[in-house]
Every structure is written in C-alpha cells, then in structure tokens.
Amino acid sequence: MKSCLTFALALILLAGCKKEKEETTTTVVTEAPAEAVPLSFEQKSYTKKSTICQKKCSYVDIKIEEALGVDGLADSINNAVFRVVRSIVYFGEKPTNAKNYDELTSKFIQSYDDLAKKYPEEAAWNWEAEIKATKEYQSENIINFKVNNYMFTGGAHGYEGNRSVIIDAKTGRTLKRSDILKDEKGFTSFAEKAFRKKFGIPAGKLINSGGMMFENNRFALPQNIFYTDNGLLLLYNPVEISSFADGAKKLEIPYSEAEPYLKIK
C-alpha cells in the first residue's frame, strides 16, 4: 500500500513538472528584416499652355524621369534635377523661386501672359519651352542625367542644348567636376590633345586657329561632361566655343584613356 502511494505521488510530481515546463517555455518568432525598396524611375510630364494665343499658343512641356522607392535619396535626386530645370525655364533677369514643376510651368506662362497684355507687339510670337530629363548612365557610385532643353522667348531663333547632372548614387548629392576628376589639370591637357586631333588643329597652332572661340585662345573643358557606357563625353553646347551655326562640338574619351584621371565611375 505504501509503495502504491509513493508511486502515485511520483506520477503527480512528474506531471506537475512537465506542465510547469510547458507553461514557462516561450516560443521566439524572428521576423525577417524588411527588404530595402530598390531605386526606380518613372516618367512624369508637366505641361501648361497660355490662353492668350496669336499665331500659336505659348506652351511649356517638361518630361522628367523621377526617382522613386528610397526615402530621402529619391527626393535628393529629384531636387537636384529640378534645380537645373528651374535654372533654364524662366523669363527675366534671374530664375524663379518656384518650388515644384507645376509652379514652374505656371510662372513661365504667367510671364508670357503679363507681357502679352502689357506689350502685345512684344509677344507676337509664341514662347516655347521643352525639357526632357533622362537618366543616361547609372552605376553603384553615380547617376548621370541629361537635361535636353529647347527655349524660345523671342528673337531670331530658339536655343537648344544639353545639361549634365551627375549625382552621387548613395547620397543624392550633386557632384562637381572636382568630385569626379582627381587631376583636372592633367585631364585638361590630355583632352586638348584629343580635341586638336579630332578637329585638325596642329599642336603648334593657337586653339582658335581652327575656327573655335575659346576664351583667351586657351583650351578649356566644357561646361558639361557626361558618363556613357563606353567613356566620357565632353559636350560643348552651341555658342560655347563656336558659332550657333556650327552647332555643338563633341569629344568622346574611352574609359581606358580617361580612367587614370577619374575619382569615380
């Protein structure tokens, strides 16, 4: 009898321990970290037209590849491109203080409308503003936009050109020439030799002897340098170093030759 009671008591204690163990065991569920949203681009359009029309209606048409997906970075990239577009689309002595594309297009058309109402003869021709900003090159280090622009606000003809916007792919910061070239002086000397060879200007001759219009007859890098899949493109827009009729001047330098002068690619 005593042995039976001992055995029964042992069973009760064993069951209690098992239950206590089950109650105190905690299941830890580990959630997988959220995946980072990749940076992507989407084309947006911003268009506005004047209601004061003579021969034609004045208009502004802006097409932009806008960055999406990464908080902060996308905004920085978009703001960098917007600042360049804003520096182009305006009428007057200085760019507007527009905060976005809708405001920018409205201000441009408003400038025409105000002029047309006050001086109808001055606004006899319609104004035109066409902007197309496209992502031309992207690596893990940089994103290079080309801002093609055509502007006409009166005169003999409009003006078309291209702007290069080179952006740090990690921070969204606009990069200056000193950020991409580690030896600007050396690269300028190298580029001059390549330029002379392409346009047939002998080494012993002044750089403008070939019909160019470099300031002070000294070779200089263009205002715009583009990264491409094959190398650097040095682009001199119309009237930068030659007459309007001569158009743009281009010089392509393969990465195999440009790489010694580059900080990033």
List the helices and strands and how they pair.
Layout: H1 2-24, E1 40-49, E2 59-68, H2 73-86, H3 101-118, E3 128-138, E4 142-152, E5 159-168, H4 177-180, H5 184-199, E6 224-227, E7 231-236, E8 249-254, H6 255-258
Parallel strand pairs: 2-3
Antiparallel strand pairs: 1-2, 3-4, 4-5, 6-7, 7-8
Please count the beta strands (DSSP E, at least 2 residues each): 8
User: Can you count the helices?
Assistant: 6
Model regions low in confidence, pLDDT < 50 over at least 5 residues: 1-15, 17-34
> What does the average pLDDT come to?
87
**Largest sheet geometry:** 5 strands, mixed
**DSSP strand content:** 25-35%
Counting copies of identical and different chains, the oligomeric state is: single chain
**Helical/strand content category:** alpha+beta
Compute the gyration radius: what is it? Answer: 32 Å
| Helix and strand run | HEEHHEEEHHEEEH
Terminus-to-terminus distance: 90 Å
User: What's the arrangement of strands in the largest beta sheet?
Assistant: 1-2-3-4-5
Shape type = flat
How helix-rich are the residues, as a percent range? 25-40%
Task: Name a few traits of the molecule.
26% strand, 265 residues, three-stranded antiparallel β-sheet, disordered N terminus, alpha+beta, five-stranded mixed β-sheet
